[in-house]
Write a structure and sequence with these properties.
The complex is a heterodimer of chains A (322) and B (250).
Chain A lengths: L3 H20 L4 H25 L8 H20 L13 H23 L5 H20 L9 E2 L14 H24 L1 H11 L1 H6 L4 H27 L1 E2 L6 H14 L6 H19 L3 H15 L3 H12 L1
Antiparallel strand pairs in A: 1-2
Chain B lengths: L5 E10 L2 E11 L4 E5 L6 H9 L6 E6 L2 E2 L5 H7 L1 E4 L11 H12 L14 H14 L13 H14 L4 E5 L7 H14 L4 E5 L3 H7 L2 E6 L2 E6 L1 H6 L1 H12 L2
Parallel strand pairs in B: 3-8, 3-9, 6-7, 7-8
Antiparallel strand pairs in B: 1-2, 1-4, 4-5, 9-10
Helix pairs in contact in B: 3-4, 3-5, 4-5
Chain lengths: 322, 250
């Protein structure tokens, strides 16, 4: 593989980050980096349907929030010792909460996708947004789980052999999930299924004319993306030790989409790079002024106008020139 | 009598006050090359849309190999062996010619819910794709569609349709926009195909139509005014009035 060396260097750097942060006396950076990894998974999953399938979902944060709330609600019931609906026991085991979070997000994506994929274009953007807002207000109204105050997860989930109270261990765990998810998505994009998604993005009419029933492939892609975002949300809940409806607000959906566009639509690493760039900018600009988003606007504008391939596109151009 | 491959009965489609398809009936026999001609605005595109499933007719029936397919989706019709090419090319512009046909081969090969194995180097897809490109005479396999000439894209359209291994091929103006030499080459390619698959050819190029067609149906203002052999159509006064006179006059 042509890109193997830069990828290996990048991965080595990512693995070494906690040690570097400790050595430089900046341990808080580890938490920041963990958030970037989680958002990287979320953005990568959106990229599967947006970048490869041409489905502009403007409600992707819903699955992020659902994944996070799954961890939060399972913790709450574990803490109280009361089963959910009197039957499903709570849990603080990551190996239990994570698959359930992905399942919950996947089921939600299947229902919402089945309805919204009957539309396309602006209608699709609006209907996915509308479903996400329904989810947002549902959790705002759920007083049993804190309503708009959110829900505290006092202790991070348990994993055999790891101590997630240590920020570096949680960081490495998230890094592992990010790498695994990217690998999975890389395989999917190159597979027969991925070729169909890519074809639908380029010309859906043509795909129908070669005998592809496009709806079911779009739906499958939508569900996979939703599950990936659910995973990201579940990890985020462990990092923040807190979940709230803000995690599924439309602003969060917008942020995830900005990450994909900023990093590079339809590229493997672009969404992760975009997540790092956006969170990094928030951190740096936010340190200078409270109105950091005022400065984010022009930067985004510049990317869309002059670098349609995002940061990855710029890097690729630089590499070809050099 | 042999069962026709395609039987269209009393097909009607109105757009507001315009009868785009007005009680059209026609038959395509097995192995036949049947041409559909008509002046601009005769309703050829609307008729094709109803045959492929993109447009739902108001009334009438489309029967394919004895099965009523009037309500079937586009993809379901292709699966049954009714493939088409587009007048305005519909291809995957970012991909190579080979990748385009490989995807069409993949669509025929069964479902595509395969998430792991790389499709890009799958010989089971690439070999038939290359064979199809050779069959239509498109040499530049590895060129992106965006960089192909118009004539090459028309050939690719044909290869994509053939990948479905159709029983009936709907060709929507395969000569449109081609130069004289390219038109001749396409005519020869279609002549080589003739007999192995039933073809419904919609075409403006009269030379090609009269050279290739076993039978011709003439469509004027949404109505099929005549069907017959090339000689019968040439001699038909109604056709001359409605169509040929207009075409040949300067």
């Amino acid at each position: 593989m042509r890109n193997a060396l830069p990828l290996a260097v990048l991965l080595a750097g990512a693995i070494a980050l906690p040690w570097a942060a400790e050595a430089l006396g900046q341990p808080a950076t580890i938490g920041l980096a963990t958030r970037i990894l989680c958002l990287g998974i979320a953005a990568a999953s959106l990229n599967l349907i947006l970048g490869h399938g041409g489905m502009v979902s403007f409600g992707h944060a819903l699955y992020y929030g659902l994944g996070a709330y799954t961890v939060g609600i399972l913790w709450e019931h574990f803490r109280l010792g009361e089963p959910i609906f009197g039957v499903i026991p709570g849990s603080n085991e990551l190996l239990v909460t994570l698959p359930i979070a992905m399942l919950v997000a996947g089921v939600a994506a299947a229902v919402i996708g089945a309805l919204s994929l009957r539309t396309s274009g602006v209608q699709f953007i609006m209907i996915t947004l509308a479903f996400a807002q329904m989810g947002f207000f549902l959790f705002v109204g759920l007083k049993a789980y804190g309503g708009d105050d959110g829900l505290l997860v006092r202790r991070r989930n348990l994993v055999p052999g790891l101590d997630l109270r240590q920020p570096d261990q949680l960081y490495w765990l998230c890094l592992g999930f990010l790498v695994a998810w990217l690998f999975l998505q890389w395989r999917i994009v190159g597979s027969r299924f991925g070729r169909v998604l890519e074809g639908i993005r380029q010309n859906e009419r043509r795909m129908a004319a070669i005998g592809i029933a496009t709806y079911r492939y779009k739906l499958a892609g939508f569900v996979i993306a939703g599950m990936g975002c659910g995973l990201a949300g579940a990890l985020t809940a462990n990092e923040l030790r807190f979940v709230s409806p803000d995690l599924m607000a439309w602003q969060k959906s917008g942020e995830i989409m900005v990450m994909v566009i900023l990093g590079g639509v339809g590229t493997l690493l672009g969404p992760v790079v975009g997540a790092a760039a956006l969170v990094g900018m928030e951190y740096v600009l936010g340190g200078i002024t409270e109105n950091w988003q005022f400065f984010l606007g022009p930067i985004l504008l510049a990317v869309v106008l002059w670098a349609p391939g995002g940061i990855m596109g710029l890097l690729g151009r630089g590499a070809r020139r050099g | 009598m042999v069962e026709p491959v395609l039987r269209v009965q009393g097909l009607r489609k109105r757009f507001g006050g315009l009868a785009a398809t007005d009680d059209v009936s026609l038959e395509v026999r097995p192995g036949e090359l049947h041409a559909l001609i008509g002046p601009n605005g005769a309703g050829k595109t609307t008729l094709i849309g109803q045959l492929t499933g993109e447009i739902t007719p108001d009334a009438g029936q489309v029967v394919f190999c004895g099965e009523d397919i009037t309500r079937l989706s586009v993809a379901a019709r292709v699966k049954r062996g009714l493939a088409r090419s587009f007048q305005i090319v519909q291809l995957l512009d970012d991909d190579t010619a080979e990748a385009n046909v490989a995807l069409a081969v993949q669509a025929r090969a069964g479902h595509s819910f395969r998430f792991w194995r790389a499709a890009g180097r799958d010989a089971a897809l690439l070999e038939p794709a290359r064979a199809l490109l050779e069959q239509v005479g498109l040499a530049r396999h590895d060129t992106r569609v965006a960089d192909l000439s118009h004539g090459e894209r028309k050939l690719l359209e044909l290869a994509m349709a053939l990948a479905a291994r159709p029983i009936l091929l709907l060709l929507d103006e395969p000569m449109a926009g081609l130069g004289a030499a390219e038109s001749l080459a396409m005519t020869e390619t279609l002549r080589a195909l003739k007999g192995s698959v039933a073809i419904l050819l919609i075409e403006h190029d009269m030379e090609a139509v009269f050279a290739l067609a076993d039978r011709i149906t003439v469509l004027v203002y949404g109505r099929a005014i005549a069907t017959g052999t090339a000689e019968e159509i040439r001699a038909n006064p109604a056709v001359q009035d409605a169509y040929l006179a207009e075409e040949s006059s300067p």
